[in-house]
Amino acid sequence: MAVSLRGQPVEQEVALPDGRQIVVRVTVATDPYVPRRQLRTVALELVADDRVEATVNTLLTPTQVGEARKLAGEVASRLASGELEPTAAAIEPLADSIQ
């Protein structure tokens, strides 16, 4: 079985400049009406205290695990430096840039 984001989302924990902890997650978006194996939308999420704070769709497919790792790392790095705010509007350009 091939590795995919369906079974193994990419997650990276990061400390924000204000001290909060955020998990950057790249995963197949969930939809209760569609079987998981049929889902192809990959989402970039920012999670704090088990609550999704921001989410945007990406251009990735579920099999692009390496690209998902690159995206998570880039977002985490920019969040940690304060270059990005932990908002959907701030992360959306990055989500659209990695294919």
In short:
The protein has 99 residues and is α+β, with helices and mostly antiparallel strands. It has two helices and four strands, in the order ββββαα. Strand 1 and strand 2 (21-28) form a beta hairpin.
Question: Can you give a write-up of this model?
Answer:
The chain is an alpha+beta fold. The protein has one domain (10-95). Helices cover 25% and strands 28% of the residues. It contains two helices and four strands. The chain has helices at 65-81, 88-95, and strands at 10-15, 21-28, 42-48, 51-57.
Topology:
Blueprint: E1 10-15, E2 21-28, E3 42-48, E4 51-57, H1 65-81, H2 88-95
Antiparallel strand pairs: 1-2, 2-3, 3-4
Separation, N- and C-terminal Cα atoms: 23 Å
The helix-strand sequence is EEEEHH
Q: Nearest-angstrom radius of gyration?
A: 13 Å
| Residue runs with pLDDT of under 50 for 5 or more positions | none
| Largest sheet geometry | 4 strands, antiparallel
Q: Based on helices, strands and strand pairing, what is the structural class?
A: alpha+beta
* Proportion in helices: 25-40%
Strand order of the largest sheet: 1-2-3-4
Instruction: Tell me the number of strands.
Output: 4
- What's the number of structural domains? 1
Average pLDDT figure: 93
How many individual helices? 2
Shape: globular
